[in-house]
Design brief:
The protein is an alpha/beta fold and 490 residues long. The protein has two domains: 111 residues, Immunoglobulin-like (Sandwich), CATH 2.60.40; 355 residues, TIM Barrel (Alpha-Beta Barrel). The chain contains ten helices and 23 strands. Helix 9 links the parallel strand 11 and strand 12. Helix 3 crosses helix 4, helix 3 packs parallel to helix 5 and helix 5 runs parallel beside helix 6. The longest helix is centred in the middle third of the chain and has 23 residues. The chain starts with a strand and ends in an 11-residue tail after the last strand. The protein binds alpha-L-arabinofuranose.
């Protein structure tokens, strides 16, 4: 059996893990909204037409923020269509679907309140511009006494929505995007939009479209917008296509290296501007997506077509767990992240009509990281076959270790030295692994789920565990109240 030693110490803190890294994403795409979140005809529907089983599952995931309404959908989004009594039916060119606008801004806000999540609204900077963005902000956030804010009240919400996070368009560096722009065109529009909106609401926070590959784009936009933006957004999808499982499991290393490049750009522009403000990274779309689940042509221009409904394997589950650990390990730079997406569409939660819903394998590492990965990330210098992160929760006096064995055939014996930590007991040790690499969860059978990890031993400050081949694991250790309290996320 291979052996790996790691050591953890409160002296080697990375920083507080932002609770916003456990974000979700509800795009008007396929059956994410219609048939997922919202299904008035379903037996699971509540009085508002929201599926209660989905509300329960999203609550279990624990997503403090949720991006809405797109994605590419935003490129044609007319927010006014989804408010008030008249809801025009439109075509959505991005996904070739029919948009009935039965679920709009007020419905999303009501749903967000029910699940306990804060919205991250994406602005349409593709087919619309500064004026519509300003109108949307006034409609959402101004208390009252203007035409738009009073219209919000008469549409059922006298209290302002107080939206804090705004995405300045979606992936506008990409040629696939309606309204694609050059870096210079985007830089101007992003800056002027954020400037105008901030005049209306100084508390607004702006996330600009950063490119995961083109650092020149990032530099050009940032040099133009630095004083108005708070986050550089990076989107990335992961899959095994054309690679080996080992390669797939190392996608996280390659993505972390690209994030580091974007951080370098942010820092060099900060120095150039002489600014004290640090622009953080927002990975507001990340997911395992093999791009294979296209629409049935018969479903073109229908409401809620079956789009991008991917089943997830154990490899996908482990890569998902690794990405969450990556957010812990980058706690000093990544301050927001959204799994893309929440329901049915490349998502941890699936539904079928008739009140049927189930959890995909990827649901569990997300749920457990979101629940136990709150606090301060500690540096773990893990070896190649072990990918790991550690989060110290000073309020709960608990250390959560997230451990991935990337070896496909061999167990990995891990010895962790918990330096300067009075470790009392192992509270829980869970593992996800499955010999059948093709197995996926279905409504009938949950093959991929956490099971007890036996043989985890704590002896003084030494923890030993044997990780099954190709596994994602969580070990929670209770600590005596700390002398030095770590900083915890707000
Ligand atoms: O998540 C699906 C799509 O992927 C989103 O609409 C888009 O932003 C990204 O390219």
């Amino acid at each position: 059996m291979k052996q790996v030693g790691i050591s953890l110490s409160p002296e080697r803190m990375i920083g507080p893990v932002a609770r916003e890294v456990y974000g979700g994403f509800v795009e008007h795409l396929g059956r994410n909204v219609y048939g997922g979140v919202y299904a008035p005809e379903d037996p699971q529907a509540d009085a508002d037409g929201f599926r209660e089983d989905v509300i329960g599952l999203v609550r279990e995931l624990g997503t403090p923020v949720t991006r809405y309404p797109g994605g590419c959908y935003t490129d044609g989004w007319r927010w006014e269509d989804g408010v008030g009594p008249t809801r025009p039916v439109r075509l959505d060119p991005a996904w070739g679907q029919r948009e009935p606008n039965r679920f709009g801004l007020h419905e999303f806000m009501r749903w967000a309140r029910k699940v306990g999540t804060e919205p991250v609204l994406t602005l349409n900077l593709s087919t619309r511009g500064i004026a519509e963005a300003m109108d949307l902000l006034e409609y959402c956030n101004f208390p009252g006494g203007t035409e738009l804010s009073d219209r919000r009240a008469s549409n059922g919400d006298p209290e302002p929505f107080n939206i804090r996070y705004w995405c300045l368009g979606n992936e506008l560096y990409g040629r696939w995007e309606i309204g694609h722009k050059s870096a210079e065109q985007y830089a101007w529009l992003a800056r002027e939009t954020a400037k105008a909106m901030r005049l209306l609401d100084p508390a607004a926070k702006f996330i600009f479209c950063g490119s995961p590959n083109d650092m020149d784009w990032n530099r050009t936009v940032l040099e133009s917008c630095y004083e108005y933006v708070d986050f550089l957004s990076l989107h990335e999808v992961f899959n095994i296509k054309g690679g080996s499982p080992g390669d797939y499991l190392r996608s996280v290393d390659r993505f972390a290296a690209r994030i580091a490049k974007a951080v370098e750009v942010c820092e060099s522009v900060r120095l150039l501007k002489g600014s004290a403000k640090r622009v953080k990274i927002s990975v507001d779309e990340w997911i395992v997506w093999d791009f294979d689940r296209r629409a049935d042509p018969a479903e073109k221009w229908t409401v809620g077509p079956h789009l991008l409904e991917q089943d997830y394997t154990i490899l996908d589950t482990i890569v998902t767990g690794e990405l969450l650990s990556m957010f812990h390990n980058l706690a000093d730079t990544v301050a927001l992240a959204c799994i893309a997406q929440s329901v049915n569409v490349i998502a941890p939660i699936r539904t079928a009509p008739g009140g049927v819903s189930w959890k995909q394998g990827i649901f569990y590492p997300f749920q457990l990281a979101s629940r136990h990965g709150r606090g301060t990330a500690l540096r773990v210098d893990a070896a190649d076959e072990l990918y790991a992160s550690a989060v110290w929760n000073g309020e709960e006096n608990e250390l959560a270790l997230f451990l991935v064995n990337r070896n496909l055939t061999d167990e990995l014996a891990v010895t962790a030295e918990l330096e300067q930590m009075a470790a009392l007991e192992v509270v829980e040790a869970l593992s996800m692994h499955c010999a059948d690499l093709a197995a996926v969860n279905t409504p009938e059978q949950e093959v991929l789920k956490p099971q007890a990890l036996p043989g985890v031993v704590l002896s003084g400050t030494t923890l030993t565990a044997s990780l099954p081949p190709l596994s994602w694991n969580l070990v929670r250790v209770r600590l005596a109240p700390a002398v030095t309290s770590p900083r915890t996320s707000a």
